[in-house]
Design goal:
Blueprint: H1 26-43, E1 47-50, H2 56-69, E2 78-81, H3 83-94, H4 101-108, E3 119-121, H5 125-134, E4 139-142, H6 151-159, E5 166-167
Parallel strand pairs: 1-4, 1-5, 2-3, 2-4
């Protein structure tokens, strides 16, 4: 569900790491993301997206699903390469009753925004290694969002030097 708007409070504590600047509008951010995907697709490179396993990965899946279904980006394989992100996505999908009304209506029409035909899950280490040597023209979403540990380090090692590949940091 979307965050609730609080009309009044006795005390308000907020995290303000990025509160000292104005951010782009969501529409501009989505356009930039779409353009990056199209550019990488045209170069036949991989798009590596470091992402946090819970919520950020699902938000990316949701966005990609919309872009694919609306034919705004070309069809290309998308790999979720994080056992934790895969498990978290499965939990999201099993708890549809907790989604907001708009999302529940979409799911009832058969449009589950957390699913699309070219979405693949790589649970095993061997599948992850295969991505590093064989995947081309793919979107690889992998944990750790801070790029300090896990499978993302290997994807960066195999793609940073490739001029046709892109590393996309999503978030602020």
């Amino acid at each position: 569900c979307d965050p609730a708007i609080i009309e009044e409070a006795d005390i308000l504590l907020i995290e303000s790491t990025y509160g000292d600047r104005l951010h782009k509008k969501k529409a501009d951010t989505y356009q930039e993301f779409k353009n990056l995907i199209i550019e990488a697709y045209n170069k036949k490179g991989n798009i590596i997206i470091p992402a946090f396993a819970v919520e950020r990965t699902q938000e990316i899946i949701y966005t990609l699903s919309r872009l694919f279904k609306e034919n705004q980006i070309p069809t290309m394989p998308v790999y979720i390469d994080s056992p934790l992100a895969i498990s978290a996505t499965e939990i999201f999908k099993k708890n549809k009753d907790l989604f907001d009304e708009e999302m529940q209506k979409r799911i009832l029409t058969g449009d589950n925004p957390l699913e699309f035909p070219n979405l693949h899950y790589t649970r095993s280490t061997d599948e992850s290694k295969w991505l590093n040597t064989e995947a081309r023209g793919s979107i690889i979403i992998s944990a750790n969002g801070m790029c300090t540990a896990g499978r993302i380090k290997h994807h960066l090692k195999y793609n940073l030097f490739r001029p046709e590949s892109s590393i996309v940091f999503v978030g602020y």
